[in-house]
Write a structure and sequence with these properties.
Layout lengths: L3 E2 L5 E7 L3 H12 L5 E4 L19 H4 L5 H19 L2 E4 L3 E6 L3 E6 L2 E12 L3 E2 L3 H4 L2 E2 L5 E3 H10 L9 E4 L3 H12 L6 E3 L12 H6 L4 E2 L2 E7 L6 E6 L4 E4 L3 E4 L4 E2 L2 H4 L25 E3 L10 H19 L6 E8 L5 E5 L2 E5 L10 E6 L3 E9 L2 E10 L5 E4 L12 E6 L1
Parallel strand pairs: 1-4, 2-3, 2-7, 3-4, 7-19, 9-14, 10-17, 11-12, 11-17, 12-13, 20-27
Antiparallel strand pairs: 5-6, 6-7, 8-18, 14-15, 15-16, 20-22, 21-23, 23-26, 24-25, 24-27
């Protein structure tokens, strides 16, 4: 049974904003470490995040060594966190609770079913997750007929609301992992997509994932982009454009926009925390700390988009850093070196700054930079300070692929100024 409260307390040791896999993993890990008061703040009526919308598998292999559907997976995460909270006391998952503002000193302003209130936390973990880019942001022309939605809306309709989507033959835009999840959701609802559209010459998801499309007889149209949605009341078709400027009409009755995820960072953008202008993600150091050391960020809030299992692992790791911070082990890390990059090929990288201790390294944080590129690229990735090369590697990378570069130990290198992340090629 979920341990939940309608009304959060006024104070706690750690407040976690977001009850998805990373938030629930962080809560579970903090309770295992002995933190007394851990409060998860979830704006939905159920915790679990995006996987709660997925009726298909596979989820849970990394976490539970079993294969679950998304809904079963999230129920196990909630059960695990709730049982620890019940056993030790001092913790709760607060549903229908929205954080409306974050302030200095771990002060949170909340909207709850019982009204507006404040919550003061010693430390705060922000893991509000991600959202897909909808049609409006993609600037697709046409009117607004019925039958246009994102994967999230599709899965919510099918798995949570038990309703039939308003189409039988949609076209799927994109070939990220979530795009193939859309195929599986359509199949569950008895819907057969007519095609997937991919702007590049190969799928964005890992090689082999296209077998899902092949097995369900959904053709993938490469080097093809959506130009116009046809229809007034209902979708009647789409105009598509190939890389040879050939424009043709594809008959369909719906459009599913998938992927192109961005962090759900609206709360952070109006806060005192420093934000990466290129991505909207908060700037973090190797411990997951934001520019206010009372705040930490994790999961897809820092590097969209990752699998549920990866976010779960990330949540555990950040919980360990929060525990260290509660015990003063990060207090000496108060000198910061920023990592900067002017490379347009790089979509994002984390962490964006490195904290250095006056007493030498005592607390281990991330030992690798993680980044992604906007387009396929071959070349040399390097991290440097002035004329000094600190780390480098040759890469052959595709969009939506995780790339890592070792972070050097900086305490004894006498670094003065920012580090530069370069990508030549």
């Amino acid at each position: 049974m979920m341990h939940s409260l309608n009304k959060p307390p006024q104070q706690c040791d750690v407040a976690i904003i977001g009850g998805g896999p990373s938030g629930l993993a962080a809560a579970t890990e903090l309770k295992k470490l002995g933190v007394e008061s851990v409060i998860v703040l979830e704006r939905e009526s159920e915790a679990g995040g995006i996987p709660r919308h997925c009726g298909h598998s596979p989820f849970g292999i990394r976490e539970f060594k079993r294969i679950y559907s998304g809904k079963k997976y999230t129920s196990e995460l909630v059960k695990q966190a709730s049982e620890l909270m019940l056993k030790s006391g001092g913790g709760a998952i607060c549903l229908n609770t929205t954080v409306t503002a974050i302030r200095k000193g771990g002060l949170l302003e909340l909207s709850t079913p019982e009204g507006v209130q404040n919550l003061k936390a010693r430390k705060v973990i922000v893991c509000t997750g991600i959202r897909e880019t909808p049609r409006a942001t993609r600037l697709v022309s046409g009117q607004r007929p019925m039958g246009i939605m994102t994967t999230g809306a599709l899965q919510s309709m099918i798995y949570l609301k038990n309703k039939k989507p308003p189409f039988k033959r949609p076209v799927i835009i994109g070939t990220e992992l979530v795009s193939f999840s859309a195929i599986m959701s359509c199949r569950h609802a008895g819907i057969r997509p007519v095609a997937m559209l991919e702007e590049n010459s190969r799928i964005s998801a890992k090689s082999g994932t296209q077998l899902i499309a092949k097995g369900t007889r959904v053709p993938v149209l490469y080097n093809t982009r959506l130009q116009t949605i046809l229809g007034k009341q209902k979708v009647e078709g789409v105009e598509i454009l190939t890389d040879t400027d050939e424009c043709r009409t594809l008959d369909c009755d719906g459009v599913i926009f998938t992927g192109k995820f961005v962090a759900e960072s609206s709360l952070m953008r109006v806060s005192h925390l420093e934000i990466d202008r290129a991505t909207g993600n908060p700037l973090i150091d190797q411990f997951g700390r934001c520019t206010d050391p009372d705040y930490f960020a994790t999961g897809n809030m820092t590097h969209p988009v990752e699998t549920a299992g990866y976010c779960w692992s990330d949540g555990k790791q950040v919980a360990q850093q929060v525990f260290a911070s509660l015990n003063g082990l990060l207090d000496g890390y108060n000198q910061y070196i920023k990592i900067i990059s002017k490379q347009k090929k790089i979509k994002y990288f984390v962490p964006q700054m490195l904290a250095i201790s006056n007493n030498g390294p005592t607390q281990k944080g991330m030992d690798k930079l993680q980044l992604r590129v906007k387009k396929a690229v071959k070349g040399r990735l390097s991290l440097s300070s002035d004329d000094k090369m600190l780390a480098h590697k040759v890469i052959n990378a595709l969009p939506e692929r995780r790339i890592v570069l070792a972070i050097p130990e900086l305490e004894n290198l006498n670094i003065d100024g920012d580090l530069r992340l370069n990508l030549e090629g």
